[in-house]
Design goal:
The structure is a homodimer. By secondary structure, chain A is of the alpha+beta class. In chain A, 31% of the residues lie in helices and 22% in strands.
């Protein structure tokens, strides 16, 4: 059967996102329904994103998936939930050029191959599952011609990884926790797009860590079960913070934005510490970065930079503008000089921030003056930061139409280069 | 005037104490009134205590004080509060042998000299002010023949340093926050004396730290002003924990005691983290010690050891009995071997715990096997612990009648050896 040989493909790219009001704790484990609303900023997909190709063919005997070039098991309930929900919404597809005609009901029988990769180290702990599941759902939706209701797509991505629902949009995004038991109203909405507040510059410090970290899934389960502070946070503190954060974003009020972002990051880590056994995501390096930012903000009289930490020691630093970001970078490089005397691999993403900071070489780093607000200027911590990434608020998922971006070989139906 | 030459002295010794339900946050800064009750265990004064000599003489032109051999200013409001409150309660004193007769009203005019020293490093951050103020108040009370109402003495010591009120008793002690605006009902009571639960062994790991720590006075002020979780902790969580902790202590129920102690330590540090700017007292070494204890407790199925941390990185570890303490010490020495190859100065207090642990030399430490519950047995952190102190629950303040203990020279009225 000649028609059994066709392979239909779609490729998409989705950004990662960083919460500024944190999601921590589920009220329903299976459906991934949170105990509070959260708000995030989407990062520029040029710097931090997942790219995914999904392919369908009558010649595929089963569903298969490759992540960063390595085949992985698709048995996980979360992948299956996303696949099932998208298949349920699939519609007729016709590709006249290739002579392919798939009826709505045929999708139930067609198996898919999925290949995905992240343009940043997965091990860095930078919400790779958020970008990955958003991309999977978005791209499957394209392949299967699903109606473009982004709210519904976000609700499906949520079932893969909670925070993935926020990666369906660019700019600033709110995940509304919803009230329904079936989770149908637990979905993300865009607050403003990425052009609304484009002064912001985001510098991520990827912090070296010897500790094995608690997974966020088991960590938040333990917090829900044992922390006496979590419910108070979720029911009393967060609702008012969400309103204030929406106002701050709408008004581009950096001072309020920074205060809320830092306070909520710290409170998330506080409820982790209030868990039994306690969860520590931040380490001494994370503490030092907070201290550096707090001292500088205090010295300036008004916040220059906001910090936020997810389920790991990495610092995500949001500077009010490019000038501030350059001053921040000088401070960071002063305290955390590159270990390998190699600036090139120490600054990823938008490397042009280095010239804004007047730093072109390791010699320039070494001659940086101590920041005036620093009490003990001698202290340097070479090796404690693995590298920095410079980024900014970015756009939501998009289709990559150029076939060269496809991660699956249309002739074989398998991941390329495996 | 010959009678102007006499010097009347008293010397006392008071223990330090470690809270197992923490005091953090004042509702009245001047009177030192807390936002919640707290419970502590008094440590054996042989290992951790303050010794204070107070002297009065008509020849003293002003009040003076020496701390650890160095004269310090007595202008602080807290010293003055304690002095004033004790003077107010002073009664007639007669020493027929020395021919001294002091009338109640004379105490207002008599100046005092105070000399105090701690038998442990002040810099270690082990509640030296608790022992110090308790000792000052207790010993001044003796000198001035104040009525021995320990509740009232504790209330006076509280005005020197909040936690000092708990050092007025041995064993387990509760500081009742009280309700009155004038603080008259904010005082400590003994729950049980030190003989009630004498199986317990306390090992303190004094952790090396490069960071300058936030003082507890300014730290708790910041928490009261900025943490959204503190009031919930104080009003809702602690009252029920206090009741459970009293039960656990009464019944010598180590499992409940350990769970409550660890949870409350972690929650205290959680509200510190929820403060703006956030306060970090624990560092990576503190986290490693918690992790070591949690893994062992988990492996045993029931808690062997409780941990608690005050306003600093030092771990206070309470083992259910001596056998458990020996097993704990093996684990601690395995992970944190002595840096200077000198076991003698690495184990202070009750050094006999070393032989219980089968460790007599640095060679013995090096040949300790990895604890079976440890996942990554290679990891050792030489230098991260400065030294250990082994202690146990101990008795309250007492008078030292032997003149050789006096820290003031009765001939000169000045601190000895200055």
């Amino acid at each position: 059967m000649a028609e059994a040989q066709w392979v239909l493909m779609a490729t998409g790219r989705s950004p990662t996102n960083i919460a500024v009001i944190k999601y921590w704790g589920k009220r329903d484990e299976a459906l991934i329904l949170p105990v509070n609303d959260s708000i995030s900023v989407t990062l520029d997909p040029d710097h931090l994103s997942a790219t995914t190709t999904v392919a369908a063919s009558p010649s595929f005997p089963s569903d298969r998936m490759w992540l960063n070039g390595k085949e992985i098991e698709l048995s996980g309930g979360r992948f299956q939930s996303c696949l099932r929900e998208i298949r349920r919404r699939a519609r007729d597809v016709e590709d006249k050029k290739k002579g392919i005609k798939i009826k709505k009901e045929d999708w139930e029988k067609l198996h898919v191959h999925i290949a995905s990769y992240n343009n940043f180290p997965t091990a860095a702990g930078l919400a790779s599952s958020a970008a990955g599941f958003a991309c999977l759902v978005f791209t499957l939706g394209k392949l299967m011609n699903v109606n473009e209701d982004y709210g519904e797509l976000s609700s499906i991505a949520r079932q893969g990884s909670g925070s993935a629902c926020r990666s369906i949009y660019g700019g600033f995004v709110k995940w509304c926790m919803g009230k329904n038991d079936d989770g149908s109203d637990s979905m993300a909405v865009q607050l403003v797009d990425e052009s609304h507040w484009d002064d912001l510059v985001i510098i991520i410090a990827v912090v070296s860590s010897k500790q094995k970290e608690t997974s966020s899934t088991s960590g938040m389960r333990d917090t829900v079960e044992t922390s006496l502070l979590l419910q108070y946070r979720a029911q009393t503190v967060v609702p008012s913070r969400i309103l204030k954060m929406e106002e701050a974003i709408k008004n581009r009020d950096f001072e309020s934005f920074a205060r809320l972002t830092c306070a909520d990051s710290n409170q998330f880590h506080a409820v982790c510490l209030d868990t039994s056994p306690p969860i520590f995501y931040m380490n001494d390096t994370s503490h030092r970065i907070i201290s550096l930012v707090e001292k500088w903000n205090h010295a300036e009289g008004t916040p220059q930079v906001a910090y936020t930490f997810d389920a790991g020691p990495n610092a995500v630093l949001i500077a009010r503008n490019r000038k501030t970001a350059a001053l921040l970078l000088q401070r960071l490089l002063y305290c955390f000089p590159p270990q390998d005397n190699d600036l090139e691999s120490y600054m990823l993403g938008d490397k042009s921030i280095l010239s804004d900071a007047g730093v072109q070489s390791v010699a320039d780093v070494e001659s940086l003056p101590a920041p005036p607000e620093m009490k003990t200027p001698g202290q340097k911590f070479k090796g404690d930061v693995s590298y920095f990434i410079c980024s900014r608020p970015g756009a939501g998922p998009k289709v990559l139409t150029d076939e060269s971006h496809a991660l699956i070989d249309s002739a074989t139906g398998l991941a390329k280069g495996v």
